[in-house]
Design a protein that fits this description.
By secondary structure, the chain is mostly beta strands. Helix content is 15%, strand content 50%. The protein is built from 3 helices and 16 strands. This is DUF4738 domain-containing protein.
């Protein structure tokens, strides 16, 4: 009798735990923010700045396109009156007001932009391009230097090779909206000879400098060049230039090839 009652109580408690667990799961799922599909539909089309009537962006499907040829298209979502845009980073913008023909939001600097939907089909020409332009010098650069130190003749050969390795840099455009530009990185070949004998020969990649350059800068930088600096008792000195494209931000890493052919690096 007592044993039966105990089994009944245990069964009842287990049932309560199961229902409680299911209830919490359902509640959690119900609380997950859902994308506002109506707001996304209303945002489709070309939008112009209400103030100066300059084309701002075009929305097609899940993607925002910019009229300039250097900014990459960005995926977007609208959730709870917030516009989420995903390029190299995910950025959110508070929506101030939205109707089928009007859209205003607050950019990253706190300014409110008011946009109107364009009804002039000729504006479509601003977006008629196949691919965003990739920014780079896109040039093969060759140079060599001959120097003498204590009767030893050094010959340094450097070659900058453009590649198809893409580097993404995020910037704020003139409207205070974060956009991503794409650049091509380089591989730089360096060879050093002493009295006609090869001391050192190697290709340098941006990743070779990851212990010398902060990761936050390296991610958005390209290996721009390696240039000769001087020769002394330590060997032949070069400067590797790792820089953020279209920006004054750069790092100089000294590359030294010793008379024995060893290579070392140090930050300038």
């Amino acid at each position: 009798m007592i044993k039966g009652q105990l089994y009944t109580i245990l069964f009842f408690l287990l049932t309560l735990v199961m229902f409680s667990s299911c209830g919490r799961k359902g509640s959690s799922a119900d609380n997950v923010p859902q994308e506002d599909t109506l707001a996304k539909r209303q945002l489709q089309g070309i939008w112009i700045n209400k103030e100066d009537e300059v084309t701002f962006f075009m929305v097609k499907g899940d993607t925002i396109y910019y009229p300039d040829s250097t900014s990459l298209p960005m995926a977007f979502q609208i959730v709870d009156d917030t516009l989420y845009m995903k390029g190299a980073n995910e950025v959110e913008y508070a929506i101030v007001k939205q109707t089928p023909h009007f859209f205003s939001f607050r950019n990253q600097t706190g300014d409110v932009y008011e946009l109107e939907k364009a009804d002039d089909e000729t504006i479509m020409k601003d977006f008629q391009r196949k691919q965003p332009i990739v920014l780079n010098q896109n040039m093969l650069i060759k140079r060599d230097t001959v120097v003498t130190w204590r009767d030893k003749r050094y010959h340094a050969y450097m070659q900058v090779n453009p590649t198809t390795y893409k580097v993404y840099r995020t910037v704020l455009n003139s409207e205070g909206v974060e956009v991503s530009n794409v650049y091509y990185d380089n591989i730089v070949h360096l060879s050093v000879y002493a009295d006609g004998r090869k001391l050192f020969s190697s290709n340098f990649y941006k990743k070779d400098f990851q212990e010398k350059v902060p990761a936050s800068l390296l991610d958005q930088s390209i290996l721009s060049d390696i240039t000769f600096q001087k020769v002394d008792a330590q060997g032949v000195h070069f400067h590797a230039v790792i820089g953020v494209p279209d920006s004054p931000s750069s790092y100089l890493v000294e590359v030294i090839v010793s008379p024995e052919g060893a290579c070392q690096m140090r930050v300038q």
